[in-house]
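One-letter codes give the sequence; each number marks local geometry. A record appears below:


***
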Amino acid sequence: MKLDAHPRFPIGNPGGHPAIPAEDATPNGSEEAALNQSVSGSPALQNAAVHGADPDITDITAFAPDLHDSDFLPPRPEPQVEIAQIDGGRALALADFSAPSVGAGERLIRFAYKLGIPGSMLSAPMGKKARTRLLATVNNTLPGHAAAGTALRAGHFLIHGAKTPIAQVDYAGPSRVTPPLERVVHSFSWLTDLEACAPREQGTAVAERILTAWLQANPKPPAKPGKGPAWDVGNTGARLMNWLAHAPLILSGEKALRNRTLAHISETARWLDRHVGRAEDELAAVAGWSAIVAAGLLLPEGRPRRLYGEAGLIKALGELIGDDGGVLSRSPLAQMEAIALLVRLRNCYHATRRDAPKAVERVIELLVPPLLALTHGDGSLGSWQGGWAVDGEDVEALVKATGVRTRPLREVRQWGYQRVLAHKTILQFDTAPPPLPAHARYGCASTLAFEMSHSGHRLVVNCGGSASGGGLVPVRLEQGLRATAAHSTLTLDDANSTAILINGAIGGGVSEVDIDRKTLVQENGGNATRVEASHNGYEARYGLTHRRILILRDDGSELRGEDVLIPAGRKGHRGKVGFAIRFHLGAEVEVLLTEDGQGAGMALPDGSLWQFRNTAGEVTLEDSLWVDGQGRPQATQQLVIQGLVSRGGGNFGWLIKKMG
């Protein structure tokens, strides 16, 4: 299967080369014996065998000194697999789902509202204009962070571990604050945290204090979007949704503030009516349209606005989501945000004793499986496309709020992340081009990177967390965390496989990915999953195609890998180029290099010991960084294999195996 970043790219393997023959996951008898000998030769394991204790990683000093390519991926001919093409930028067509069916009269009302005729005139042309009020109270089912809410009550915002006093925040926006703080402050997402930490009446004073300061700094909506972060369409839509969903927190105080807030809610809804089409990206458009529908549900004379908003929302969702349910930015954070927006909107429907449109329910069902495909054994997320390792509790609470019971996505297309579950081991493999520039928020050059965990403990990871830059992660590291070297994959000449630009944008590089996934039958009767993928990100600069083959045994005890560099043209280039293969290790991994310099021993908190071996060259241990479930940086380490490779191509085999 081929994943293309754009439909104009041709079908076929990069450079016109045939697919590499598949390799068998099962070593022959002599190879298995050699591998077992390398494991049993460890003094730590010998001692453990005698005393019946768990082996100590610090005593691992002896591994098999001489391994060859055949020890890692023994060749085995198998039939060629036809490669199909899938456009990596395809959104859902409107035919996939449609807006609620309406009669001719309602279509006319929707059209008239779109032209700018006020809703009051369309709802009651001869009647008195209704005063602004909320028609229902929304029951919030989305989870908040109690720690962040407690920090608000103590007088400061707590975002990704960084504290900012409420009194020091510039709500007008001329003096820019960090991006994470901007999003929290101007979207009013902190209301959910405040409600999660204490009874509502205990949070009202804090909510009204921040709201008053914000209204003083932003008394009227600007003429158009772009006048500071407060009036981006995405922040404005999220803010209106949060105001409506948490109305008791901000409308329970003095009458003057209540009337002022209601007037601002009405003005914000009218501003979105006019400017939602100028959203900064598709997710921001969904936030804007969702807020328009929510205002139509909860404000008087809102039927014309609701009809107008429902049609716009369905179209925006079709442009946000690929046909496998993954958002086209390929970001798990954006996936979670889209789910949260629609769940909150559904709560608004329920508050007015209406059912959400079937299309909205269907999209929620589509969004959940791709998110679950990126969970590890502890339920937390992999670190992809700017996201950090979001805690399993947060993911579980969000999925619970959807009411959807499903399994992780299996038929992967635009989402692009292959998931292999083998007993207690989970493998995540990025086998798609980065998102198109129009969809990227924190676009990362992560193609052919992988993550691996065992029993909920991360063994191999990506750094992740570029979207958290501005908390405890310095903003200056944002671009570095998006680079290819921040992911567990191969790089050439310290260059990114796809260009990393400022403000989350990406440039040229990987435009197509070939992928082949199959199940292999081993000689001992077991199975293994083999995933092979290649990308063209280095073809233009170095004339080489990067192909990666991963084979995971079905018992999860062994991952065999091979990185292959293939000349992109008929005639290879002369000279050599530097390469590096990086394996960023989880924060809980204890690691010790072997004496021969060709491998390492690794220990996980569950007591399991793992062996890393390679045929590519000397293994070195370097410092790394990993962003945890709260968006905070953690010092970690990485295994690095580096050297020079001929521009005529080369291959590098490696192995990660559980010992004992």
